[in-house]
Amino acid sequence: MKLRYIHSILIVILSLFYANKTSSQTIDGSSRIKAVTAKDILGNPNYLAICYGGYRTDTREVQPTIKQLKEDMRILSALNIKLIRTYNVHFEEAANLLKAIQQLKKEDANFEMYVMLGAWIDCKNAWTEKLPNHDEESDRNAKEIATTVDLANQYPEIVKIIAVGNEAMVKWATSYYVQPSVILKWVNHLQELKKQNKLSKDMWITSSDDFASWGGGDKSYQTKDLEDLVKAVDYVSMHTYAYHNTHYNPSFWKVPSKENTLTDIEKVDAAMARAQEFAEMQYNNVKDYVKSISPDKPIHIGETGWASTSDGLYGNEGSKASDEYKQGLYYKSMRKWTAQQGISCFFFESFDESWKDKSNQKGSENHFGLFTVDGKAKYAIWNYLDSSDFKKLKRDGNTIEKTFFGKEHLLKKTVLTPPN
């Protein structure tokens, strides 16, 4: 009888082991994190994704410390974030971030955080006084890719995805964009390393770029090189920004005459529903193009977001798109839609970063974060702060608190109504 009992217990344990790809339970009840791959993570609503930068000041000359990076990872983990996206490896931040996550995993066997490691790609003469040459690439790209590979091999339990370039093919990136052939070259290089066992075969390779760059807009982007790139990547990582289109393509944003009788908040709610539809349309446009080339190619959202402040094109004197209320609505609606569709969504971004528009601290680029620089949680994530997980967390000595003292009536006083 005793042997039968033990045998039954073993069958149950084995069943749990094979039923759950990401975790298992030991006999004493403790949880053990098992190795997962990009294939397990992407499209899985249990692995919320977000874009991350840890800079606290108005310059990247001041690199975040490992202690600060660990603070941020604990905060994001409390939001149920398990996958973060970085943008380059030529600053200390990327390597230190991987060290920070590794340390957290050693401190707590149940801590789970994975990385989509970005390799920045530039054209020749980018960011110099010389005229950018968009038909040739920067000599530095080779070093960026090599460093990315080194880090991925050094931290295989953390790095699950490599992204070649960030908005590196879209032509409005006039300072640095390259032709698709450059991205294709480096994607093929990484895929070849996988075949040679010089990079994990489970590593997924992509390029993270604007919806137009992935064939979802102007047909001038739909070239033979782009077709080859679609075939070469393990999945497509596309960006969509209804926020920016409130200025550049505002037809969906302005209040139609049939809504003139609504209250201001109702007008905002309706506009944000149209913004959600706009993002879905751009995703579906990319999907239609990609599926015509590679029917089974996965497509995920590498970036989308909504700034909470702007004194420019998206502020009170512009499209009136920027406030925390709208950011919160967009965050929640995008999370809901992408979860339903099995789409990973790297929301842009975790924390405000003031280096992005150093000369104008009210510029929208500084205010896409779900948290302020000093660690205040914006409206989009207020509900998370009701959990006890946040009571012990701090950012640079500041406790994590809700903006507007958590008072929605104070928040709504700042809401801007879209123009008629």
What does this structure look like?
Helix content is 36%, strand content 15%. By secondary structure, the protein is an alpha/beta fold. The N terminus is likely disordered. It is globular and about 65 Å long.
Low-confidence stretches: 1-31
- Structural Rg: 22 Å
Tell me the helix content: 25-40%
How many beta-strand segments?
14
Overall, the morphology is globular
Class by SSE composition:
alpha/beta
How many distinct helices? 11
Sketch the topology as an H/E string, one letter per element.
Answer: HEEHEHEHEEEHEHEHEHHEHEEEH
Give the spatial strand order of the biggest sheet. Answer: 3-4-5-8-9-10-11-12
Main beta sheet strand tally, sense and closure? 8 strands, parallel, barrel
The average pLDDT is 93
Beta-strand content: 5-15%
State the distance separating the first and last CA atoms: 78 Å
In brief, what are we looking at here?
The chain is of the alpha/beta class and 420 residues long. Helices cover 36% and strands 15% of the residues. It starts with a helix and ends in an 8-residue tail after the last helix.
Features:
420 residues, alpha/beta, 15% strand, globular
Write the layout of secondary structure elements.
Elements: H1 2-19, E1 23-25, E2 31-33, H2 38-41, E3 48-51, H3 66-78, E4 81-85, H4 92-107, E5 114-119, E6 123-124, E7 133-137, H5 141-154, E8 159-166, H6 180-195, E9 204-210, H7 224-232, E10 236-239, H8 242-248, H9 264-293, E11 299-305, H10 324-341, E12 345-348, E13 394-395, E14 398-399, H11 408-412
Parallel strand pairs: 3-4, 3-12, 4-5, 5-8, 8-9, 9-10, 10-11, 11-12
Antiparallel strand pairs: 1-2, 6-7, 13-14
